[in-house]
Amino acid sequence: MPSSGPNTSSPAPKFRVAICGAGPGGLTLATAILKYTPLSSSIAIDIYEAAPEVGTVGAGISVWPRTSALLNAMGLLDGLSGEIGAVGTGISEGLGFTYRLSEQAEEGINFFSLKVPTDPLLIHRSALLTTLQRGLESSDASNCTVQIHTNARLTSYTSHSPTSPITLHFADQPSAQADVLIGADGIRSAVRSTMFAAPSMRDISLKEKVEPRWTGVVAYRSLITMEDLKKVWTPEQVRASGLRAMIYTGKNKHIVSYPISRGALINFVGFYTVPGAYESRAAYPGKWVKDVPVEDVKKCYEGWEGEVQGLLQAHAMETHFGAGAGQSMEDAHILGRLLAHPLTTLDGKRGTTDVTTALKIYEAVRFDFARGVVRTARAVGLAYEFDNGWDLPPSFLDSLRRNDDKATQWLERWAYEGLDNGGSVVERGCEDEGCKAANTEIVNVEER
Ligand SMILES: Cc1cc2nc3c(=O)[nH]c(=O)nc-3n(C[C@H](O)[C@H](O)[C@H](O)COP(=O)(O)OP(=O)(O)OC[C@H]3O[C@@H](n4cnc5c(N)ncnc54)[C@H](O)[C@@H]3O)c2cc1C
Predict the structure, then answer these.
(1) Closest CA to 91 of 114, 69, 65
(2) Separation between Cα atoms, residue 202 and residue 199, nearest integer Å
(3) What's the half-sphere exposure (Cβ side, CA atoms, 13 Å) at 134?
(4) What does the pLDDT read at residue 65?
(5) What DSSP string runs through 24-44?
(6) What does the CA dihedral 185, 186, 188, 194 come to, rounded to 10 degrees?
(7) pLDDT value, residue 174
(8) CB neighbours of 422 closer than 8 A, spacing ≥ 6?
(9) Which of 119, 251, 315, 446 has a 20 to 30 A CA-CA distance from 70?
(10) What's the pLDDT at 2?
(11) pLDDT at position 257, please?
């Protein structure tokens, strides 16, 4: 962890950033700040993580090209080389995902193949987090300081004005101070709930959003060893489905499975949607994350084809777009660049941009985009379960059924957008509308 940086006479930090949460978003934000803060400047970063350690839980995630380009730009892709590779993944042919009708007892039918120009990386979440953390620890080319505080669960914060320091309150820890607080603390964010519930919050509609709304979807996550799968599937099934990224579909239910860790493990996520739960704003009855007996999962997919039954039998252990982590990392990268920008300062004096304005620029640049991805992810999830009720282009399901390019284009647009125009995310950081606006704003301040 760079605590003193390469220079013995490090510049004093221009401000203190507290990041709540050491998930993909929080760690990427720290990485981006470290990378983009020039040596003439420095930022003090404190990461507060509720868990006793960083990133040991979770299963597989798909990392799409726009996010891997970003990891590459930050020099982190090599750190994942042990996880990535065509060994046994079978998707090196440009076959993103195979969609299969599976809700019947008879053998399933593969009805759609998402043909992607570049394969997504299918990796273990903990490998991603370890790589990000190692990157922070080994970075010696920055004058920024980074401290990760584990067992530090933020309960709330207080802030008396936009320009005064923020006091962070923790369960079982002394409070701490920062100039900027970034909430990267997940779906039940303490930062978001404190902000939305604050008496000073003028937009009262946000008070209803203090508690996250249940989508009506339940997900069973698990990892299956390839060895176990080979015991229950025929070699032909292993080749055709075990080494590929599969989406087994049925009404109101679907299963995503794909190999990770160079084919040693199969990531399994079984979803079911409770019809009407989202629309009625129902609260999920019970704990949000818990261990369940494998019998519950088997019951959920009772009557489905043999290939699925085999998968469930091989269940050794107890986001429809595969975009959440990628989005949080992309957001973090852009926010990190804005905070690190030499013209972003605490007070905005001497022709610079104050940090509050920099945060507003971030919101202007990213809010609509992020919201669009969230909406599309929900629509895609419903489409997997033959529900066309949410924002889907009317022809989408027809295209899906016909296995034609229209559906592929619609599904892959987000994941590859920009790459064909020759830009990595970082290049686009300066060229796309969002960051162009951000840079323009900062340049305008410079020109004043
Ligand atoms: C079943 C499933 C499959 C998914 N598959 C994919 C995929 O394939 N690809 C993809 O890109 N995304 C996927 N996602 C989404 C992805 O996991 C999330 O979007 C992503 O983890 C969000 O990252 P984050 O850093 O914002 O938050 P999180 O990963 O939720 O991290 C938040 C961190 O904050 C900590 N924390 C929480 N509260 C506090 C507090 N009060 N104080 C301090 N620390 C706190 C938590 O312990 C955690 O470490 C999937 C999600 C699910 C549920």
Answers:
(1) 114
(2) 8
(3) 12
(4) 81
(5) HHHHHHHHHHHHHS-TT---E
(6) 40
(7) 96
(8) none
(9) 446
(10) 55
(11) 93
3-state secondary structure of 81: coil
Q: In what order do the strands lie in the sheet with 166-171?
A: 153-159, 166-171, 173-178
Strands 246-250 and 95-101: parallel
Rg (CA), the chain: 23
- Phi first, then psi, for residue 6 (nearest 5°) are -75, -25
* Single-letter amino acid, residue 6: P
Q: Are 96 and 114 in contact (CB under 8 A)?
A: yes
First to last CA, the chain: 38
Closest C-alpha among 97, 131, 99 to residue 115: 97
Which residues does ligand 1 sit against, CB inside 6 Å?
20-26, 48-51, 61-62, 152-154, 184-186, 190, 219, 221, 269, 319, 322-326, 328
How many angstroms separate the alpha carbon of residue 22 from the centre of ligand 1? 9
* DSSP helix/strand/coil, 255: strand
Q: How far is CA 349 from CA 29, 160, 317, 440, 446, in A?
A: 25, 21, 57, 18, 11
| Distance of alpha carbon 393 from alpha carbon 71, whole angstroms | 32
Rounded to an integer, what distance in angstroms lies between the CA atom of residue 99 and that of residue 112? 5
What is the Cα 278 distance to its own chain's centre? 22
Largest separation between any pair of C-alpha atoms in the chain: 72
Q: Give the per-residue pLDDT at 90.
A: 39
Q: In the block, which residue shows the tokens 């590779």? A: 85
Atom of ligand 1 nearest to the CA of 22: 49
Q: Please tell me the predicted confidence (pLDDT) of residue 108.
A: 94
Spacing, Cα 26 to ligand 1 middle (Å): 10
Which pLDDT does position 55 carry in this prediction?
78
Residue 296 C-beta-side C-alpha neighbours within 13 Å: 13
Q: How far is CA 148 from CA 19, 58, 112, 116, 318, in A?
A: 9, 20, 44, 38, 30
pLDDT value at residue 128: 92
Give the number of C-alpha atoms closer than 13 A to the C-alpha of residue 286, restricted to the C-beta side: 6
- Top mutation candidate among 29, 31, 46, 49 for ligand 1, by most atoms within 8 Å of CB: 49
Q: Which domains does the chain have, with CATH numbers?
A: 80-123+212-323+372-446 (3.30.9)
Other Cβ atoms less than 10 A from the Cβ of 140: the count is 9
Residues in the chain predicted with pLDDT less than 50, given as ranges, are: 4-6, 86-92, 316-318, 418-438, 443-448
Q: Residues in the chain, how many?
A: 448
